[in-house]
Design a protein that fits this description.
Elements (H helix, E strand, L loop, with lengths): L3 H17 L3 H7 L7 H11 L21 E10 L3 E11 L4 E12 L3 E13 L3 E16 L2 E17 L4 E6 L1
Antiparallel strand pairs: 1-2, 2-3, 4-5, 5-6, 6-7
Helix pairs in contact: 1-2, 1-3
Length: 174
């Protein structure tokens, strides 16, 4: 013979399993409340109550809300249809700190003009500010029997500063 408390645990497990599969709405409402124990009725009520989830830091027990991350992008362009250079700074921030930043380069030309992207470098990074530089060589060339020869070349650079509140600025140097 099965003990009464074992039956109540089986019934409770059945109601819990039915709730998790979405079937409790019909099975629990079809059964009269008098057929269910107080424990079973409390379980149904608890399962139909929306859960309140709160993250907590493991060490201090204080509540932690994940910070939203935002993105921003700025571009600097120099040149014309015959010769151009473009820096594009993309950065991600939370409003109070920097998450990451990336400086991309594009360069193009139609001969005899010359425009070459020479690379980027991050020269400062903190939790609030990132600073990067992009380098270019812009000039003109001539065609010779031995190939193209550069007649004039000038080095240019861009300087970028972006911040954890979303602000940013860039400028051409030279």
């Amino acid at each position: 013979m099965t003990k009464p408390h074992v039956l109540s645990r089986i019934a409770l497990a059945t109601i819990t399993a039915a709730t998790l599969t979405g079937a409790v709405a019909t099975s629990a409402s079809a059964a009269p409340a008098s057929d269910l124990t107080a424990e079973q009725q409390a379980t149904i009520k608890a399962l139909n109550t929306p859960a309140k989830v709160q993250r907590q830091a493991e060490s201090s027990g204080a509540s932690v809300t994940p910070a939203a991350t935002y993105g921003a992008r700025l571009s600097l362009y120099r040149g014309s249809v015959l010769m151009w250079a473009r820096d594009t700074m993309t950065w991600y921030y939370t409003g109070s700190s920097m998450v990451s930043s990336y400086l991309g380069q594009e360069a193009g030309y139609i001969f005899p003009n010359v425009s070459q992207a020479k690379g980027t470098a991050r020269y400062y990074a903190s939790s609030w500010t990132h600073a990067q530089v992009g380098r270019y060589t812009i000039g003109a060339g001539v065609l010779t029997p031995w190939g193209a020869a550069t007649v004039y070349a000038q080095d240019y650079s861009t300087d970028w500063h972006v911040y954890g509140n979303g602000a940013g600025n860039g400028r051409w140097n030279n």
